[in-house]
Amino acid sequence: MRKVWVKLIEPIMARVSRRLANKLILLFTIIIILVVSSLTYISYSMLQRESVDNSMASTGNNLLLVGRNLESYLSGIEQLSLPQISYDEFNYALLHESEDYSSRMYVEDYLRNLYFSRNDLEAVYLYVIKEQKYYYVTKENYNITVRVSEHPPVDDLPWYKRALKSPYNRSYQSFVEEQPASLNSADYPVNHNKVFMGYHRLIRSIVSREPQAVLSLYLNSSVTDEIMRDIPFSTGEHLMYISPDGEPFKVDDKQFYRESKEAGLAKLLTPEQKGRVTWSDKEQKYLVIYDISQKEGWKLVKPIPYTQIYEAATTTRTLSVGIGLLFLIVSVVLVSFTSNRITHPLKNLSLQMQRFSTGSFDAQAAVAGKDEIAYLSRHFNKMVEKTNELINERYKMKIVEKNAVLKALEAEINPHFLYNALQAISTKALKNNNDDIVEMVDNLALTLRYCISGKDVVLAREELRHIERYLALQKARFGNRMQVVYAWDESLMELRIPKLSIQTLVENCIKHALEKVSSTVTITIEAHITGTHSVISVLDDGPGISGERLEQVLNSLQIQWEDRAADTAEEDGMESIGLKNLNTRLKLLYGEESGLVIHSTEEGTRMDMRLPRGGVGQHV
C-alpha cells in the first residue's frame, strides 16, 4: 500500500517542484489550509462545549420545574385518596355496607363525589376485602353509575403486594409495559389505552390495622400531558417518567425504553451523577439529563442525542469550511497571480542564462523595478557584457598568439638554414683535411640542433652530451685554462631535467670565473641523491660573486614568476635572467619544493639545482 502511495505521490511532487511558482502556491495553500482547519477546529470545539453546557443548564432547570409540578400532582392524588375528615364515617360504612343500606349509599356517594372531583379520573374502584367484591364508578352514556361486582381475592396482584409493603399504604400501577395474561385477567377490567396510571390506596382499620379495602384511582394523562408539555421536545430526543421502583409511567418510545433498560441506563441515574450522564446505545451517543424528586425519588429523564446538541456547532463548522474553501480558492488565485509576477522575471532570467550557457553571448535579461530580481538581472547583464569584453580580448590575444607562432616559424627557418650552412662548411673543411675546424663546426651544428629541438624536458644523459659539445667549443676559446671534472651518479643518468638547465649553470661559471681571471679555473659538474631530492651541482674555483651582487641575484629568485617579464626589463646588464628563468621553470615543472640554491665565497661558487624525488610527472 505504501509503495502504491509513493508511486502516486512522486509524479505529483515532481511536477510541483519543477517551477518556483508551484512551490509558492503549494506552500501558501498548505498554510491557509492549516490556518482555516485550526480555526474551524477551535471554533467547533468551543461551540460543542458551549452547546453541551447550555443543553445541560436549560434542560436541567426545565426538568427540575416540571418534576416539581409532577410531584405536586402526585401529592394531590395522595390527598384525594384519603377520606381525611370523614375517615370514621367512611370506615364505618365499609364495615356495614353489606347489611346497612344507608352505609352502602354513603359508599356510593363518596365514590361518585370522588369521581366528579377531577377531570383526569377514568375510573374509581373500591375493593372490599372481607366481602371480595368491589364498587366501581365509570362513565356510561353520559351517566355516572356506581356498580358492584364480585371479584376474587387480590392478594396475588403486584400492586396490592406493594401497597401492603409500603409505609404509605399505597402503590402505583404502570400501563406502559404489557402485563402477563394471568395478571390482566385477575385485575380490574380497565381500558389500558385510556389510563396513564393506577393509584391504589390501602385502607386499614384504625384499631387492628388490618386491611379493610383498597381504593383504586385510574387516571388518564390529560393533566400530566399538560404538565410535561412545558418540556421542549425535538425529533430524536426522548422523555421518560420513571417511578422509584423503576417502572415507566410515561415514555415517548417504548422500544427505546426497553433498549435503554436492557443496556443498564436506569442504573446510571443516581444522585451522585448530579442529574447528567453520557450514555450510548447501538446507534448513537446521548447526553441524559434527569431530575430526581426529593420526596419519593420519581425520575424525569430526557436523553438528548449529541448530534442534536452539536447541530449548531456542526452547522457553524460546515459554514466555516465553506467560507474557508472560498477563501482558499480566492487565496490560491491571488497567490498564483503574485507568484507568477514574481517568478516570471526569474523565468526570463533563467532562459537568458540558458542561452548564455549555450554560447549566445548577446543574451540580455529585462530589468523591471528595483527589487532583488531586478538586481540579479542587472548584474547578469553586466556579467554578459564583461564576458563579451573578455572574449574579445581573448580573441585578440589568440590572433596575436597565431601571429607570434607564424613569426616563430619564420624565425625557425634561419637556424635551420644556419645548421645546413655549417654542415656545408664542415664538408668543405673535411675535404681540405682541416680536422679541428670540422670538429668545431660539427659541435656547433649539433649544439644548434639540440637548442632548436622542440623538447622542454630531456634526459640527463642527453643534456650531458650537449654540455660536452658546448664545452668543446668553449675549450677552443679558453684552451687549457678551463678544466672540466664530472662526478655524476650513474643512477641519475635517466633523470628528466629541463633542457639547457646545466648549460645555464655552466655559462654562469664561465661568466663569473673564467672571464674574470687569467688563471686556470676548474668547473665541476656533479649529481647526487639526498633523502628528498636529486641535486645537480655546478662548481668553480674562481674568485666568486661579490656579496652585493649575490644578494641581488638571490632576491631576484624570490620574485613571483608572473612578474618576471616586468622586472626583467629593469635588470642591470641582464646578467641574472638565465638563472631567474631556470628557477621559474623548475618551480613550474617540479613545484615549490624545487629551485636553485647558490653559495659563493672567495674560493669559488657552488650552484645547486634541487629536484624533488618523484620526477616531473607530478607537477607538469
Automatic annotation (TrEMBL):
Annotated EC: 2.7.13.3
EC main group: transferase
Membrane topology note: Multi-pass membrane protein
PROSITE patterns, per the entry: HAMP
Record GO terms (molecular function): protein histidine kinase activity
UniProt xrefs under SUPFAM superfamilies: ATPase domain of HSP90 chaperone/DNA topoisomerase II/histidine kinase (SSF55874), HAMP domain-like (SSF158472)
UniProt protein name: Sensor histidine kinase
Organism: Paenibacillus rhizoplanae
Phylogenetic placement of the source organism: Bacteria, Bacillati, Bacillota, Bacilli, Bacillales
